[in-house]
Amino acid sequence: MPPLSWNVSEIFYSVQGEGRHSGMPAVFLRLAGCTMGCDFCDTKYAFAPGIPMNSLQILVELAKYPCKTVVITGGEPAEQDLPSLISVLKSAGHTVHIETNGAHDCDVSKADFVCVSPKKTVSENMLKKADVIKLLVGPQTTPQDVEKYYPCENEKTTLYLQPLDNLQENIAKCLQLIKQHPSARLSVQLHKLIHVK
Ligand code: SF4
Asked: The domain that contains 97 carries what CATH number?
């Protein structure tokens, strides 16, 4: 059997800009490809095929950084063999966070943290596995959109509302929605505010 391989868009070391771990250093492992096709996607460059990397190549790259927390993101990581990738990283002693659109139900039970950001479709099973549900808020977002995920069914899950592109009108809408849904939390894209990747 050939060794497992993943198509990787990029690996870089930065600071988590969103949600519960905002401000925390992490290595980002961005897998290539996503078929969701959101107009507002801010990582369209990850739609390119990427570079095939096997587990050893990925671990060697991750070992260049002093931080053991790895955020697997995309693109959409669940469009590749995400459970095997999580196992590889966990076996090497990494703390593994997942960022997914949640459209593909897959086994993320070995991950330390799972953020599901629903887009056009989402798996109910993946919503149940989420530590955080991150809803992007733009001009079209309504209270009914928030109520699809609020209150979160699962006690461990927190709903974050994140203004699209940090735009002032979207921030104002988030604040209004959070005041109406007080268990929800605000997530701003810190990395865009401080102009880092
Ligand atoms: S699901 Fe995420 S990565 Fe995929 S197109 Fe939409 S915003 Fe981009």
From this structure: 3.20.20.70
Cβ 70 vs Cβ 62: under 8 Å = yes
**Containing domain of residue 120, as a range?**
5-134+156-161
Token digits of residue 133: 């549900």
* Separation of alpha carbons 11 and 26, rounded Å: 11
47 CB near ligand 1 (under 6 Å): no
- Please write the tens of the pLDDT for every residue from 144-164: 999 999 988 788 899 999 999
Q: Is the CB of 76 under 6 A from ligand 1?
A: yes
Q: Is residue 70 part of a domain?
A: yes
pLDDT tens-digit map of 80-106? 999 999 999 999 999 999 999 999 999
